[in-house]
């Protein structure tokens, strides 16, 4: 187990620089393998992708941070400030998430999909806090990878009802947020609705599938939907708490992106659920 935890943490440390590039390049729709510099467009150097060493680069990706809310700058001309601490923070967070998921889930076949969920949550958190939006270029590839990984487990373990549970979870979570979006578009963005497809897919799978004597079985579709709502409640509670704290610091009228809380709430629910065999 300890070897698996260390391996996933180290893998997270390697993934961190790639997430930093994504943070820097995806929101402005630039090619992923070019980074923002004073010349804006220099190719990515190998040193930019080396963990730890890249923290001391002159302009590492994801350290040039937009200032203020997009609502305050409708023309898109937001100032940038360099925050060099963000490069190590993103890398360390990615490593910690990978190690925590491995320590909790263990050798369950769900682990690779869980890592996709965890590292996508890190990426969504940073981008949403910076730009107040969740790009499709983040959500849909992560959703496709999750469907593929969960599909492999479903076919290998002959669990077609497990796939149904994941689908129900995705539709239930996205449907709930879609209603909230219709009621209050200013408070719930459509990017959150699309993110909920990814989060509900994982919650529905984890809630509806368990391991009994080494074999994966489906507990039930009601369990899948029920666990999805548990994850949604955790994310909503985190969003309320973090939103209140954010507004205390930034001012009463400051907008707060809800996507990071929803993603973190899902990861917390998965960690609390533990191994499928628990």
From TrEMBL:
Prepilin type IV endopeptidase peptidase domain boundaries: 115-240
Keywords: Membrane, Transmembrane, Transmembrane helix
GO BP field: signal peptide processing
UniProt GO MF annotations: aspartic-type endopeptidase activity
Transmembrane regions: 110-129, 138-157, 163-183, 224-246, 253-272
Pfam families on file: Peptidase_A24
Family designation: Belongs to the peptidase A24 family.
The protein's name: Prepilin type IV endopeptidase peptidase domain-containing protein
Organism: Actinomarinicola tropica
Source lineage: Bacteria, Bacillati, Actinomycetota, Acidimicrobiia, Acidimicrobiales
